[in-house]
Specification:
Length: 150
Amino acid sequence: MLNIGDVAPQFTLPDSNNNQVSLKDFAGKKVILWFFPKASTPGWIIEGKGFRDEYQNFIDKNIAIVGCSADSVTKQDKFCTKQKFQFTMLCDEEHTMLESYKVWGKKKFMGREYMGISRVTYLIDEKGVIEKVYPKVKPLSHAKDILKEL
């Protein structure tokens, strides 16, 4: 996991509409960058809906919301369309960005080890520096919890 004060790694990835999106596209704004293991899974639907429902409150604070998983553009598009997500959802099938943000690694569940994405959210400031790290997220209240701190 990255630390507060680290420079956020640059990236260019396709979004759910297959447009190329880079961190530099958000220059002058803060960015909530949230990582989730897989599109259309229950916890991430709940977390995504929280960001969707609070979207205007983030926009009013000049904060962009960007989600990222290792899903394909097609899966991410279906997820965003079905859930009516109006924010950017990135697709990192090669895990390049996931690795640079230190959220891709070994996980353990019910005694089984596998490679996957950690539930981490970063708040990146207007200059591209990590301002806050959320290593443990509660999908049901994550968006509101962040807004309370801002």
